[in-house]
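Deliverable D2.4 — example input (structure tokens):
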């Protein structure tokens, strides 16, 4: 009888702890600084106003996951979609976000000021913000930077994987260093950073090379953001951030938002992927090529590639390892969430879509994080960076 009573007490205390973690998650302001649904789904004609069975994000599922603020990535590849160029691509994506917002006035709102962000959260709407991923979209023209800021751009990632004439990317600095005409920010690049500070557009340093990173940190007068980057010391891939960079962000008062892509979180996954993309893949493709035509081979290869990587997928605990690493190195004021949902080919087990954000709160709580720390990590830190950068109207 005594044992039964003890079991009942343990059961109810576990249940009430789970409920209080759930309450904490849904009460906290949750901000995700990077989602690619515009370029991956919306431009393909998918309507995220309805619950979708494909992709990782839509309005219903964001609600389920407790998300309050989403930076929508406006992204275009190094060759433009439109013949008019990158700037046209960016505007077309912003149009698509405006249309979704117009269709759903009671469920979401597009914000451009800190006051509007706070108001949207109070109204329990999904607050949408525009983040332009890649300086190539301003086409080396300050008036286009001004124009995108006027349309609501609130961060700009100085480069995507491709460098611009004024800033070098992590990919180019690490993989094509010999062919670079310059490294880091040029004088024009520094002018762009100053102008972004004036316009209230956050300097996003995900994807940029280390030289560009340090040049930008030395140039900006405002706290920076890394909208979707993870920790190099846990997973040493070209665009994750090293300890000295993390310390520099802390000194600047900025925030690093952890990317959920398996290949940026887990070094075993990244290693296996390298093997498949390298010698192992070549050997298999060469042997298949003798039997199948190119289209069939590509289809078989894509399926095989994702199947081979399945066993290497990390669990969600790996996401929290990256958060934990930054907290232990510089404290809990400089880390946030930058999932990259709908922009990556593999996510950790247990993090299949945007409904799963609460497991991060559960894991932080399990590791002994205080409610105060968890609130900072889920969104408080990014709110601070927005407040410091945005105009106060
Ligand atoms: Zn990216």
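Example output (designed residues):
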């Amino acid at each position: 009888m005594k044992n039964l009573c003890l079991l009942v007490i343990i059961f109810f205390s576990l249940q009430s702890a789970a409920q209080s973690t759930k309450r904490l998650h849904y009460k906290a302001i949750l901000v995700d600084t990077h989602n690619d649904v515009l370029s991956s789904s919306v431009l393909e004609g998918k309507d995220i106003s309805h619950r979708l069975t494909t992709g990782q994000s839509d309005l219903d599922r964001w609600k389920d996951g407790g998300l309050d603020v989403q930076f929508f990535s406006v992204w275009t590849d190094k060759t433009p979609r439109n013949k008019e160029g990158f700037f046209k691509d960016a505007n077309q994506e912003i149009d698509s976000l405006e249309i979704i917002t117009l269709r759903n006035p009671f469920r979401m709102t597009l914000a451009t000021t800190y006051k509007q962000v706070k108001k949207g959260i109070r109204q329990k709407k999904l607050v949408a913000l525009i983040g332009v991923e890649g300086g190539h979209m301003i086409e080396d023209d300050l008036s286009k930077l001004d124009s995108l800021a006027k349309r609501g751009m609130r961060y700009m990632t100085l480069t995507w994987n491709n460098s611009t004439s004024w800033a070098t990317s992590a990919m180019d600095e690490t993989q094509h260093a010999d062919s670079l005409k310059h490294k880091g920010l040029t004088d024009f690049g520094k002018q762009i950073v100053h102008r972004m500070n004036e316009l209230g557009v956050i300097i996003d340093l995900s994807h940029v090379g280390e030289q560009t990173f340090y040049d930008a940190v030395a140039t900006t007068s405002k706290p920076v953001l890394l909208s979707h980057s993870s920790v190099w010391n846990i997973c040493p891939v070209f665009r994750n951030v090293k300890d000295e960079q993390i310390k520099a962000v802390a000194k600047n008062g900025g925030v690093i938002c952890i990317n959920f892509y398996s290949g940026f979180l887990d070094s075993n996954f990244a290693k296996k992927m390298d093997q498949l993309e390298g010698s192992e893949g070549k050997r298999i493709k060469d042997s298949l090529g003798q039997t199948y035509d190119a289209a069939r081979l590509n289809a078989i290869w894509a399926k095989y590639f994702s199947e081979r990587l399945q066993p290497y997928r990390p669990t969600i605990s790996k996401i929290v390892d990256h958060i934990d690493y930054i907290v232990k190195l510089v404290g809990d004021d400089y880390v946030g969430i930058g999932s990259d949902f709908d922009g990556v080919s593999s996510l950790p087990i247990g993090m299949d879509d945007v409904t799963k954000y609460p497991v991060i709160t559960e894991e932080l709580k399990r590791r002994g994080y205080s409610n105060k720390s968890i609130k900072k990590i889920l969104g408080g830190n990014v709110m601070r960076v927005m407040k410091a950068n945005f105009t106060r109207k």
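The two ends are 64 Å apart (CA to CA).
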